[in-house]
Amino acid sequence: MTQGIFTRPNIANMKRHLNSRKVFDYDNTSQKQWESFAATGDTFVKNSPNLMMPKFTVTIKTLNKNWCCIRDGLKSAANDHLPNRMVTDTAKPFVPLNVLRWSKALRFLSSLLLALTHKKIHANNLLNLTSWFSFIEPKVDTIVDICVDLSMYPTDFDIKYSSGESVFTVKSFIVKLFQIVHVKYKEEHSQFADEQMKSFIQRQYSDLKENPKRMIDSILERKRRRIVLDKVLIQKPDGPELIIDPKELDEQINLHFQTTAKIAEAQPVLNDRWNKQYTPKSYVDKHWYDSVMAPIDEVEWMNTINSLPNGKASGVSKVSNEFLKHMGPEMRTATRKLCNLCLILNDIPGEWREGVIYPIPKPTEWNCNLANTRPITLLETLRKAFVKVITNRLTSIIAKRNILRGGNHAALPGGSTFAPLRIINAVLEDAVESDKEIWFLFQDLSKAYDRVRDHLSLTLDNIL
Question: Mean pLDDT highest for which of 59-63, 133-137, 349-353?
Answer without folding.
Answer: 349-353
